[in-house]
Design goal:
Blueprint lengths: L1 H16 L4 H43 L2 H6 L8 E13 L4 E8 L17 E6 L13 E16 L2 E16 L2 H8 L10 E3 L2 E3 L7
Parallel strand pairs: 3-5
Antiparallel strand pairs: 1-2, 1-4, 2-3, 4-5, 6-7
Length: 210
């Protein structure tokens, strides 16, 4: 790109020196136009590359923040973006936000929270400033939360106090449980003579049937 800028400066200098020659002036102007177009394209490509590098660095930075680090010192990570998965414990609509208490669970390679609850490293609070109906996130729902760390809050938990990291939600990915997948892929169950159950209730049919 520096070489192109040098060429442009040389062309501008040559135009001033030989401006009296119409043919040479036309050629120089055409060459200058082509170089300007290439320079603009190169600058645009550089901007795209820088943006991509910044996005990659942010993603790597998000992944570098572990839940144990966040749990140990949530206030020191204020303003940092992160992605955390887990299982919804409760969801409540407050006066100015919806508060979701979540049992943290590691995310697998597809970004889905694992099903082994013993892998949990604690709890956290995710809050949505805009309206979010708690009925859409019943207890047991597995989600992945993308958001910004806003600090911490200490609340009673059974007979003790527990400090929750707090995440301001930017995006929530809801994952279906294995029982939901089984219900969609195997909607009919039949064990022999008698009624069998489908999506709309019991059905009677002679046995065997084809």
């Amino acid at each position: 790109m520096c070489r192109k800028l040098t060429s442009l400066l040389f062309i501008l200098y040559t135009e001033r020196m030989f401006g009296a020659c119409p043919t040479l002036t036309v050629l120089l102007r055409r060459t200058r136009a082509r170089l300007l177009a290439r320079t603009r394209l190169s600058a645009l490509m550089l901007l795209v590359m820088f943006a991509g590098c910044a996005s990659t660095q942010e993603t790597e930075h998000n992944q570098a923040l572990t839940f144990l680090q966040l749990k140990a010192a949530p206030d020191s990570f204020r303003g940092q973006s992160t992605v955390i998965g887990g299982k919804v414990l409760t969801a409540r609509r407050l006066k100015d936000s919806t508060k979701i208490e979540i049992l943290q669970l590691p995310l697998d390679q597809s970004g889905r929270p694992v099903y082994d609850l013993t892998q949990s490293q604690g709890r956290f609070i995710a809050q949505q400033r805009e309206f979010l109906d708690p009925a859409t996130l019943p207890p047991g729902t597995r989600i992945a939360v993308t958001g910004i760390v806003s600090g911490s809050i200490t609340l009673p938990l059974d007979e003790t106090d527990y400090t929750y990291p707090v995440i301001d939600i930017k995006r929530v990915q809801v994952w279906a449980g294995p029982e939901d997948v089984a219900r969609r892929t195997n909607p009919y169950y039949y064990m022999g003579p008698g009624p069998y159950w489908g999506a709309w209730g019991p059905y009677w049919r002679p046995w065997p049937y084809w």
